[in-house]
Amino acid sequence: MRILYHHRTASKDGQAVHIEEMIDAMRALGHEVRVVAPLADQDDGRMGGGVGWVHHLKAVLPKAMYEFMELAYSLVAYRKLMATAREFKPDLIYERYNLFLLAGLMVKRRLDVPLLLEVNAPLVFERSQHSGGLALRTLARWAEGKAWRGADAVLPVTAVLAAHVRDYGVPAERIHVIPNGINRAHFAHAPSPAEAKASLGLQGRVVLGFTGFVRDWHGVDRIIDWMAGTDAPTDTHLLVVGDGPVRTELQAQACRLGLGERVTFTGVIHRDQVPAYVAAFDVALQPAVTPYASPLKLMEYLVLGKAVIAPATPNLQEVLADGLNALLFDEAQPGALEHVLQRVCSDSVLRGRLAQGAADTIDRLELTWLGNARRALSLVQARG
């Protein structure tokens, strides 16, 4: 098929990974993909970067004006999409949903081309909760509902997120959950845990690992507090693969508790380096999670066969099962996280069993980008 892939993302974080992997997977399946997107900063492969001009606009413009500009961008994108569609003659449009973005829907209606809409977050809800909220919430809710109801198929990344989509009146038969995935090839040449530890000078340690852009709500401070207590084995070491706004605070906490030598931050690294660091983990940490998300880091933990610790939230339980591929804890129960940390760090047999269960999960649930692309495109192919 000829696929017109449209997005409005210019960042170099996990969003970029999802976009690039889905495009590559569609092409690997033999489809021709044409991409229409805004001009982005040159991608140097370094994860966790932002988009400076976007942040500048948000900072200097009144909130309502910025949101009107987002909606107005749909007209710019529509013209680009229409020009490409007339020349490319696509069999379908695949769009990554963004707030106030209606260009894909407009082209679908103009040319009668099927539209698959990938939804990674309920953005009206999300942006209402963060960054000072939305100035044009009624307009935003209208735009979100218009986009979701207008697509031929909506592809949320979790069943929890699918419930948000249904709340907008999208029929259940047009909602198809497709979680984030993994590209096995990118992790096929990761070193063994022993080799990875040796390269980092962490031989003989039980390595607790976290990847990503660390924020205060991620709960990494609780891990450091636990390591300073009497229940934590003294050979534990925390390895944070990434950076974040609370890095300085966490490093100060570690030094204050006498753990300065047992906590390591890599800083922002090239995405190709991630497997070599994650390979060193004995225990992979997901201390907290957005309740509707499908975390990319979780797929990285699973594909490398790491014992996972995570909260027992409905979205994570779509992939994780307590005692099979993870130890899950009740977020509302005081000390629950610390209890599972003590269990897994003190029991190498348990870690091994969870690690094997984690490694088996990718194939069992087909959590690959190729599988995701195949499932998504089959929705259009089935229509003939």
TrEMBL record:
One of its GO terms (molecular function) is glycosyltransferase activity. InterPro entries: Glyco_trans_1, Glyco_trans_4-like_N, Glycosyltransferase_grp1. It comes from the Bacteria. Keywords: Transferase. SUPFAM superfamilies: UDP-Glycosyltransferase/glycogen phosphorylase (SSF53756). Residues 14-181 form the Glycosyltransferase subfamily 4-like N-terminal domain. Residues 203-358 form the Glycosyl transferase family domain. It holds the Pfam family Glyco_trans_4_4. This is Glycosyl transferase group 1. It comes from Alicycliphilus denitrificans (strain DSM 14773 / CIP 107495 / K601).
